Amino acid sequence: MKKVLAFDIDQTLNVAKTPITDEIADLLIRCLDHFEVAPISGQKFDQFLIQIVNRLRDRGVTNKQLTHLHLFVAQGTQYYKYFPTSDMYDENNWQQVYNYPLTPDQVLKITKTLEQAAQELGYWEADKLAEGDQIIENRLSQVTFSALGQMAGTEAKYAWDPDTEKRKKIVARCKELAPEFDYEIGGTTSINAIVPGMNKVFGMTHLLEELAVQKEEIQYFGDMTQPGGNDYPVVEMGIDTITVHDHHDTAFALRGVLAIAENLETKEAPKAEE
Length: 274
Ligand SMILES: [Mg+2]
Known about the structure:
The protein is an alpha/beta fold. Helices cover 39% and strands 18% of the residues.
């Protein structure tokens, strides 16, 4: 049986950039009793708390269950783990186990490249931004372009580039301007720029090491598993992957995975009467 369930977040566990539903939260809590659970995404740590951890707390997750949750932040270039100090939940008990940030020069070069490419192609939508929002965000281990900013509505985001054609053009231009970086399409309006190798392969390789498991013991769920997508590196690594269109597919798959895990446990448990 698999030991680790690893998940992309945006459009795999949630509607992009929003907290997970009660249904997904309840399923993940059940998963924590049987598996190590490892979300891995380009997002920042605070978004992992808002979108996943706080929702699990709303649905009654225990501290003990949280010790089986492993947060692979910024494509797994940062890893956070929960170390309970008492029965009470304390957000400060999330500890960073490792971190591999970009250098300031790399951040600057990527930022300029993304802006220039988007400007040239007419996809620089600065006039549509909410106050205080930004298109390009330094996420420490990667720089992320979000065409309409972080705060744009989900509908507007889905409508902006549903076939990924705009982002493919931006990526092609960035590759000409600064070929030393990799550019991955993710979420609904995003492009993640990274140093080659600092993608989900980096994160998954460290996950194998940190959780002391083999590739075969991981089941991965993602929505961008096609070549060029930000989940594709995981497929290339040879990790078993389930491609989903959205969190409804993930819920469907998890009910199956849990049915098997819980059934096995019942069979293996010693019978009280014997
Ligand atoms: Mg995704």
